[in-house]
Amino acid sequence: MTTDGSVRHGLVRAAMDAPFLEREEEHLLAVRWKSDCDEAALHKLAAAHMRLVISIAAKFRHYGLPMADLIQEGHVGLLEAAARFDPDREVRFSTYATWWIRAAIQDHILRNWSIVRGGTSSTQKALFFSLRRLRWRLGRTHGDLTTADINRKIAAAIGVSEKDVALMDSRLSGPDLSLNAPLTESDADNTAERMDFLVDDAPLPDQTVSERIDEERRSKCLKQAMLVLTDRELKIIRARKLSEETATLESLGAMLGISKERVRQIENRALEKLRRALSEADPMFEVRAA
Length: 290
What we know:
single chain, mainly alpha, Four Helix Bundle (Hemerythrin (Met), subunit A), Arc Repressor Mutant, subunit A, 3 domains, elongated
């Protein structure tokens, strides 16, 4: 018998041996734990609800994770429920704990089902755990639907995009693949890996170097051309064209003691002087008016 099987059977046996609790006894144990932090009461309360944990964990056994791990994670959710439960609300502890147990198991599956982390939002979790069921139901009741139609209906039902549905379906349809694995099993020398065929969207090295050289050349030409400007023209050009926050004509006029129309005229004249100076230095250089 496997180790996982031994642990699972031990947990099941312990759960079956635990006595059922009447409503009054359950409430008394919850009060003792809530008010007095009575660990014996917590242990008895948790042990009596391990059947519930095992029952919920069994519903997720088809996700390929050890059943013993699912039960243990469900037990963590059970203890979390016990820590948050308010016995004065007159709700059965099993009703309250069910959500916490299921949430703990689902979080564990999402963390360990794949080495690639999936979405953790409520809608993404609902998509992960409902996709197969919804696809099977639609295929059964609407056998003539195309894949696009099924994805559209699932997306509308759960509240996600069709792209998210298609992406989740592709993740669920196959196991994880290593990028360092050989491209084909027949490649005895393992010369080609999947990573070798990934498309890089970044610019090519020669393009990056070329753009950097052009940028340095333009910057040098601009600094040289700005020497033809007067101090006032240079101040206006820097404030209007070379600052992260563009100064307004009104603010520059108030600072220089001139009207905003005069600032506009000086700016246009300075830009024209820059165009001429840059054209003489490099005919390919362009200065935009705005």
